Description:
Elements: H1 2-20, E1 30-37, E2 52-64, E3 67-78, E4 84-96, E5 101-106, E6 113-117, E7 145-154, E8 157-165, E9 173-175, E10 179-180, E11 195-203, E12 206-210, E13 228-230, E14 237-241, E15 247-251, E16 257-262, E17 266-268, E18 275-282, E19 288-296
Antiparallel strand pairs: 1-2, 1-11, 2-3, 3-4, 4-5, 5-6, 7-8, 8-9, 9-10, 11-12, 13-14, 14-17, 15-16, 15-18, 18-19
Amino acid sequence: MKNLFFLSLFLFISLSDYAQTYNPFPKTNGYWKEQYGSVLCLDPWWTSDICITFQYILEGDTLINTNNYKKNFRSGRALENGNYFDDGYVGGLRDDTINKMVYYLEKDSANEVLLYDFNLNTGDVFNQTFYYENFNGYGSEDTFHIGVIDSILLDTHYAKRFHLLGAGDGNVYLIEGVGTTMGLFTNVYGYFEEHNDLLCFRNNDTIEYGGQCDFISGIEEVEERKISFFPNPVKSELTVSGYSPTLLKLCNTLGQIVAEVSKSNKLYVGNLPQGLYVLQVFDEKGQQVKTEKVIVAK
């Protein structure tokens, strides 16, 4: 009985420690993939792109008004017509880990706004922030309260999770270091038909929330070929098998070419930082015949 008591006490203290330790947002290589649309991703009234899948990429720093921000980039694709868009830099993220507050500075704006406040208790009214404006877009106002507060396992560590009562379909949560389950910057509201969902969150190439975390590329494949790549992840040299390419190009997540080689099926990547890249394969006519996501590991 005594052993059982101490075991229970240990587990209680351990779970309390998980909840009390603040889980920060990524310092670099953060990735959020989201989808917006109706249940069927179709709009019967307009020809607009009602269903889109998009991504936010956290990469690099910028110093504004003596504050250091992590730069955010947005791009995506409309599922209805396949059109790709790239908004580029959209704003900076500042994580005040001491006070557990996250701020957002929109592009071309001089003043930052509160994005997330993780100093919340059960029963609290959800505070006014950048992503919650107490208005659900359908002509009626919503007041959301904090429900159960618990912890969620993100890969190998825990983060505090807040249930937002009345938001979305009733299963919307605010998660430390991630954002809400409706998205990183998405306005929280009680949706009716169209809505936004966080498909996945990746921290330094490790999927910590959700799935379907493949990178959205603006590059379309010209034709399907039986081309394979190995090893992947790769540390030094990447080999292309099943095809003799005229040109290989490797791009980072910003679309910048970081490595290339002509008339060879081998590409050296040993000097690149670890992370996610996109490999482009070209034929003798200069046409791109294949793209592949490549992870450079150390």
